[in-house]
Predict the 3D structure of the following.
Amino acid sequence: MTPDVLFDVVIGVIGGAVRVGAPFLFVSLGECITEKAGRINLGLEGVLVFSAMAGFAGAYWSGSPWIGVLAAGASGALLALLHGLACSLTRVNDIAMGIAIMLLGAGLAFYLGKPLIQPQAPQIPSIFLGEWSTSPTVRAALSINALFPFGIVLAIVMAWAFANTRWGLVIRMVGDSADAARAQGTSVTAVRVAATVAGGFIAGLGGASLSLYYPGSWNEGLSSGQGLIAVALVIFARWRPLNCLWAALLFGGAGAIGPALQSAGIGGGYYLFAALPYALTLLILVVTCSPARTLKGAPMELGMSR
């Protein structure tokens, strides 16, 4: 591999980390705020697929990608609201309800989205960071999803708010000790439902990134399990929003290695590299899910920390 080819591959992986990592970032931030309040939402895979379909439909029918982004966020919040309200009932298990929401979201998306498989919708605009280069590969690799900077700002704001604001303290208190929150006069149910809905809206932005940017179309296999991977990513990030950003870039970079090598004319092992995000998820779960390590940073109301 020549130095020029190696440079193109490295730039391709960096650009791909942002491009592929954008859905991971939004979904993991959404799950982070949900789990901070002491609730697990395994239905984020269904939320991601449904919001991707809704975002594509909104952009297609309105002619504006930003209407599509809002539709994706709203649809994610709607499914999350159903999850939050159902889990507030007695004898309803978060995990079982999350699986039901996952199946419901995917089923609705597949049924309602069939007319949308062929059409093309307006795309989220790109931010071009590669204008300095004459290489088409570098210029294409450094075209950044316009939603991604918002994700970075959101991660910073969430990290600051959890540490320095009253609502951040309330969310963390509800996640660490529901009894203490009730003793302070806080409605645990209201806080958890609100955090779940906010998490669903943020995760919905990840769905918009899929259908309106990369790969930029709607089809039934769009998410490829990214919603479930993001749940593992939150554990890896130790429930810290800024760590979710770095973890999303790590997963995005792992997923971008294969396409970056292929764009440089190196096709061997493409499918092996395509499996890297899933292998990385399995490795993270094996390494982090021992009792001694999982407790660190976990909200105490989560079942994994009891």
